[in-house]
Amino acid sequence: MSRVFTIYNHGTDFHRDKDRDEVVTELHDAAAGREARILQGQKTTHNPSGFKLEAKAPTFLICEGPGSDAVLAGPRKGVRGVAHSHPSVENPILNTSKDWRENPFAQRHELLMTPTSITQPRGQLVMTRSEIPMSDFRQGFVGNTPTHYQTTGRALGWDWEDNVYRASWMLTHLMFERGMKIDTVNLMGWSRGAVTCIKQANKLYEIFGMSLKLNIFAIDPVPGGYTTVTDDIRFIPPNVQDMLVILAVDDDRSTFQALDAQDLRVLSPSTGQAPAPQVHFLPLPGNHSDVVFTTKGNAPQSARLCAHLAYKFLQAHGTKFSHPPKHGNLTVPQILDAYDTLRANRATIKTRAAAVGNPLVNGFRRQERRVRKTPGEYTTNPHRWVNEHHRLCALSPNLQTVDRSAIQVSPGDPYSPWQAMLPQMGITYGDTHPLTRTLVRL
Asked: How far apart are CA 237 and CA 203, in angstroms?
């Protein structure tokens, strides 16, 4: 039986307590099990460091976004009563100061013989702490990573490296030191949190190779206009099994360009090890924020569909939920109503979504996204369908409440190979086998 661990990555300036109707928060607030957190407690003989894992067998990890605000502990301060700040402020392992002198895993202890004296004629063996400076490598290994300003995290996303380290350290601890039988890791994130998912996947491939299967739900992965796109951002490593990418169609800010089908590259595993990662792109109307805010913005229907798709995807890949998130269990008629609303309001959404504040502050210049310039690369017959999920639901053989005469599919329309991938990724509604056969005949 597989053991699944899920990682939720917030975007820039966002965290678990900022907005309950933001998609990443909506999903992790419904998560079953316990969060993986290291707590500081009482030092004992059996636990001289005083630190311990809060839950014996945690099932998920929440990573706050780069540049996010600090929240104090307590039920009135934070939704989960958890204190947190933006990554790079605190030790990513211990959630304490990064001062190595306060880190029990960084201190070097030596057993020394005390000198004799009049009152102590015999020397004694005592344990003392050495003040020898630590190497940069060792400090980083115990969580004393570089510290950045909040504004730097917001502008350049530098803080995400701590979230990469935090995720990889926690999984090695759970698997190697606590013996948890984890074989699947699901990652979900928005904005720089979605890019963080890719960085975490590459780091986990370095550590675990193909022994861990990964699945990624990436919502509008935007590295930021001034962020260097390194290999661990643009390469999808071979340990990734499925990756579903949501792309906001209508964000025209030059510094908010998302990683799309032309940017991301799939790394295939060695021959015979496993199939190459499946990556599917689903465009949704609206700007970068519209695809995650379910109760506000220019296209809340896009965010609700995104939350639904995230729930279906994670659940299909083994993530457990204590209850369905607010928009998790949309029915096919509800899905089609949402898509019909988006399609009918395309022109209005495009105009309003592009006007995101002052362009001199929020992007400096306009740059149309490729997903809007070349929609046919992402969707079959984009004038009729918003994306392939829209098309899949409209052609579902189990959809009895929709007038079939209203669904016009031109004879000879090519069958999209992406269409077959969505059911494989868990986006299914009833029996997918008859559906696939029906689509092939069209």
From this structure: 9
4-41+49-99+138-363 CATH: 3.40.50
**Residue ranges of domains in the chain:** 4-41+49-99+138-363
Nearest-angstrom CA–CA distance, 245 and 363: 23
pLDDT digits over 269-287, tens only? Answer: 776 667 778 899 999 999 9
For 104-120, what is each residue's pLDDT tens digit? 666 655 555 566 666 66
Instruction: Name the band, by pLDDT with cuts 50, 70 and 90, for residue 351.
Output: very high
Nearest CA-CA partner of 306 in 383, 234, 240, 386: 386
Q: Rounded CA gap, 308 and 322, in Å?
A: 16
Q: How far apart are CA 166 and CA 140, in angstroms?
A: 11
**Residues with Cβ within 8 Å of residue 179, at least 6 apart in sequence:** none
The pTM (predicted TM-score) of the whole model is 0.83
Q: Are 277 and 238 contacting, i.e. CB atoms less than 8 angstroms apart? A: yes
In DSSP notation, 200-229 reads HHHHHHHHHGGGSEEEEEEES----TTS--
